[in-house]
Amino acid sequence: MTYEHRDLLLIEDSDEHAELALFYISEYRPDIHVIRLADGGVAMDYLESVSNLTKPLPWLCLLDLQLPKYDGHEILSVIKSDSILIKMPVVVFTTSAAKKDISRSISHHANSFITKPMGADGYGKAIHSILSYWELNQHSLISLG
Amino acid sequence: MIQYLINHVRLQHRIYASFIAATIVIVAIILITYAVFARIDRDLRDFIFSSKQSRIDLQLTAQVAELHRLSLTFTYEGHRSAAEQVTHSYQNLMQQIDQTLQQNSPSVKTILTTIKHRLESYYMAFEQLKQQRDLRQQLINVEFRNNASNVEALINQLLENSSNSLAVQLEIKSILNTLLLVEKNVFRYLDSLDASYITAAQHNLNHVVDRLNALNQTENSSHATIHQALHKLDQYQRSYIKAVQHMRGYLYLINVVMAAEAYEINFQSKKLSSLIVSEMRSKEESIRNSQAEALSILVMSASLLLSLLIVLSYSIGQSISIPIMRLTETFRQLTNGSGNAKIFSYPVVDEISQLSQAAAAFRDKNTQTEKLLTRSIQLTQALEKNRLALERSNDELEQFVYTVSHDLKAPLVTSMGFIGIIRKLADQGKYDQAIQKLDKVTSSIERMGQLTSDLLELSRIGRIDVDMKKIDLNILLKQLAHSQQEQLQSAGLQFIVQSRLPVIVGNESRILQLFENIVSNAIKYARNPEQAPVLEIGSIIEQDYHLIYCKDNGPGIELAFQQKVFALFYRLDKQPEGTGIGLAIAKKVMRSHGGDIWIESTGGKGTTFWLKFPIVNEQAKEAKYDL
Amino acid sequence: MDRRTFILQSGTIASAAMTSLAFPGIAKAYNRKPTIKVVGTHVTLQESIRLQAEKDLGIAIEFYPGGDAEVLLKASTDPFSFDVYEQWSDSIKVLWMANAIQPIDIRKLSYWEEINGLSKNGRLTDTAPIGLGDSPHKLLYLQPDGSLGSTVSGHVSFLPYVHNTDSFGYNSAVIPQAIPYQTESWGWLLDERYHGKVAIVNAPTIGIFDMALAAQARGLMTFNDMGNMSREEIDTLFDIMIAKKRQGHFRGVWTSVPHSVELMASGEVILSSLFSPAASQLNGMGIPCVYAAPKEGYRAWQGVMCLSRASQGERREAAYAFMNWWLSGWPGAFIARQGYYISNPQRSKTFMSQAEWDYWYDGKPATSALQGTDGNISVREGDIRTGGSYTKRFEHVAIWNTVMATYEYSLMKWNEFVLS
């Protein structure tokens, strides 16, 4: 099995959470290149360069909601209103399980909403499932060319 | 008047009064009209009557002429029927005059009375005439003839007695012839009314007497007869003289007395006629005048009465409609809920005053309703305010809970996640790596503890801080600089506090915490690559507020984030030191002091925090607390 | 001013005539005193006179006044109805012919000699003309043949006493006053200027002469003898009068003195044949009435006293006494104050003041105000009687009141005139 080069956009302010995600991503699919963006402002800058095609469109985006400067909802609405960025699936991956956040994210066309699990093994399983699911998904055929 | 009616006469009575007034006026006008027309009618009747009478002279003249003609007929012809007709005509005329007398003016009456007296005189003269004429007839037809035949008989007797002498016989025959001439002359007189025949008759008779006297001298034997004859002759003469005198008497009556009366009647009739005509003229004039006068009286009185009626009905109408209009206006206002609608009071007890009382009651109810409504609105407003406050509080609470749950879960997720990694590393035998990861768990839990205590602090603000007092900011900030001296020095931050800062009212520990947060913020973020970081605090006064500024020369905050920074757990970057609660606390403190906090910053040129405190007078007012 | 008031009042004729035919119980009036009945007109049958006479004579006197025609009828047909008859000379013929009166014995007339020439000769002075018609002297003396004439005899048919001259009156406020005997004329009665305002007395024996004098004065006709007109003359005269009357010239005829006064006073009439009392009365009322002295002369009348044929014995003596009393002075003075003259004025003069005499008889201005018989002032001081003195007036007699032979005829013409 050959692995295509895949960029995963991890927008996460918490270093600890980012470390957890990287740990499990690298464990499960070491080929995935994780681009971690630590706050909203950096994320916006990056996304803009993607939008103007200076950077490639990532395969998948894990988006935390609680972010400095711009929060996840704002970033999501930017992504889903951009003709380029919209092709990138966005999995909202957050500690929040609030209905408000869920409905708002869905209405902003989030492709998934996953709450970060609390259990010791939960976090790894969640990362694993996300990656497996989106591995099965054929969206990369149009998004990545 | 209107006011008087309103104040003194009951409504019903006013309405009745207007009807009665109208009725009276109408009746009065009818009566005046009737009187006026009755007068004109009377005048007109008079006039017509007069016009009928105006030719009374012709009627009277004709009738009197006829009367006199009949009288003359009787006088000369002796027809009884003519005399009867005279009487009849006279009675007719008198009757007419009497009738006319009953209905005429004084001057007409005077003339008519004169005419009447003339007519009476005329008729009396006629009666006299009849008597005398009858007497004459009697004298001529009976006495005169008897005497004539007596005398003749005596003279014939004389002739028989004295048959001895032819001369005597001739003389006696001559006497007899002369005697017959007497009779003849008398009748000639009666026929011709020529007095000379009577003179002749008288002459004849004297002649007879003379010759008989002479005969008496010669004829002794016939003394007695002659004497007797002379005596009879005397009677004979007397009878025709009497007849002549009676005749002259009645001729005088008819031709002089009665003629004059008849003429006078005619004259007076003419006078009467012209009087009536002139009276008619004056009547005509007076009718015209009285008509004009009557008409003007009618018009004037009618218009006067009508204007009176108009004034009266206007007054009464106004006296009715004004209160009703007032009441209508009052009720209109009342139905609009007015509680101070003007209500006129009416001293007379009637429907209007009762309505006014009802309106007053209505107004009282309105006033009460208004009060209740005001109260209700106040209550509703208060309720709404409370509801909004509650809602806001709920939102804040929800936000708080949400934020808290998210941010508190984050260290949990972290610690549990690293525990999972640790376990996995331990399973793989990578113990060193696993132990390394334990620090992560520890720091995560510590962070959770810090979060918890910060949240506790936030929740206390506005709930527990009731200890308000005057705070001299000059002193407070001096103390703060002193206590933070170490941190300030290590950060290299120049802390400048302007003099003459205001004295405010507030909770000292909260205000201090506020400024600590600002200072710590400055220490954390005010890093300037070109200059040494500076934090300057000063104040200005704007309107009713003290505005405190805290100005640094750091990188500044973009406009987009100037509001967000005050939100709970919001951080502008992922500095490990901050929990994202400090500015939320600052906002809450300012709000709890009736003031506010906001940021003024232009990117790259530092940040200024503006703190707004209300200016409090000497008597420190109790600060109002929003929930 | 009750003089001669009812001289011709027709109403009185009628009413009094009724009683005249049967005098109520005259005989019963007899008592101790001799009683005489006097029939006559109101001119002389005045109560003051009767009372004075009764007083003076000691006899009872009954007055039976009446209208002219009435009293004449009475007297001429019933001599028993009176002892003394007082009227005008124009009734003498009738009475004499009717044998109603007896001749009066001159020897029994106390003042016969004093009676002036007017009634004895027909004129007062020798130069005066004798008036036309039956001048009283022509009927005075009893002639041997039983007729009446002017030839003096021992008996007279009447005792002359009251007399006067008549003319016409005019309102000087309307008609300018003219000169007596010169410019005043009977012709005025037919003058066009007075059209419609002329009146005539309603008495044919008087009025006819007024009209005749007027017609003659105006030259409308002449008379053979005005005092004895023929039927033709009467026809001509009445033709003139009737034509005038039809033209409306005459207001009418008057039948009594008050009537004439009323006509003049009302202004209906400004010129009328009048009796002198009417003129006095009008002046008293303030109507300036001039009693004219026509240049043609007056129409005069002579009052007469006759003795009834039936009056005999004691009553005849009493009647003589009464007749003599009339000329005894007092009655003449009395009647003078009413404007009448008496046949023996000198005897009356002693019963009058000088002022009265001067005014009434001498034609001089009144030297003082004079009282009438009623006691009222009838003449103001300075007044002059129109026509002048007694003598002057009776020197101007044109005609005497006369009953002509054409009397009956004139009556019928009069009727025509009055009613035309």
Radius of gyration of chain A: 14 Å
Helix content of chain C: 25-40%
CATH architecture of chain A: 3-Layer(aba) Sandwich
Work out the helix count of chain A. Answer: 6
Structural class by SSE content of chain C: alpha/beta
Neighbour order of strands in the largest sheet of chain A? 2-1-3-4-5
Q: What is the number of independent domains of chain A?
A: 1
The DSSP helix count of chain C reads: 15
Number of strands of chain A: 5
Oligomer: heterotrimer
Please mark out the parts of chain C with pLDDT under 50 across 5 or more consecutive residues, or reply none: 1-31
How big a fraction of the residues of chain A is strand?
15-25%
Shape descriptor of chain A: globular
Provide the low-confidence segments of chain A as ranges: none
Largest sheet of chain C: 11 strands, mixed
**Mean pLDDT metric of chain A:** 86
Q: Which key features would you list for this structure?
A:
heterotrimer; A: 145 residues; alpha/beta; 6 helices; 17% strand; C: 420 residues; eleven-stranded mixed beta sheet; two-stranded antiparallel sheet; globular
Question: What's the topology here?
Answer:
The complex is a heterotrimer of chains A (145), B (627) and C (420).
Chain A: E1 6-11, H1 15-28, E2 32-37, H2 40-51, E3 60-63, H3 72-80, E4 90-94, H4 99-107, E5 112-115, H5 122-136, H6 140-143
Helix pairs in contact in A: 1-5, 2-3
Chain B: H1 2-8, H2 11-53, H3 56-77, H4 80-101, H5 106-161, H6 166-192, H7 195-218, H8 223-335, H9 351-427, H10 431-460, E1 469-472, H11 473-483, H12 485-491, E2 494-497, E3 503-506, H13 508-525, E4 534-542, E5 545-552, H14 582-592, E6 596-601, E7 607-614
Parallel strand pairs in B: 2-4
Antiparallel strand pairs in B: 1-3, 4-5, 5-7, 6-7
Chain C: H1 10-20, E1 35-40, H2 47-57, E2 60-65, H3 68-77, E3 84-88, H4 92-97, E4 101-102, E5 104-105, H5 117-121, E6 141-142, E7 148-149, E8 155-156, E9 159-171, E10 198-201, H6 204-217, H7 231-246, E11 250-254, H8 257-266, E12 271-274, H9 276-284, E13 289-291, E14 298-308, H10 313-326, H11 330-336, H12 345-349, H13 354-361, E15 370-371, E16 377-379, H14 390-394, E17 397-400, H15 407-419
Parallel strand pairs in C: 1-2, 1-3, 10-11, 10-12, 14-17
Antiparallel strand pairs in C: 3-14, 4-14, 5-8, 6-7, 9-12, 9-13, 9-14, 15-16
Helix pairs in contact in C: 1-3, 7-15, 8-9
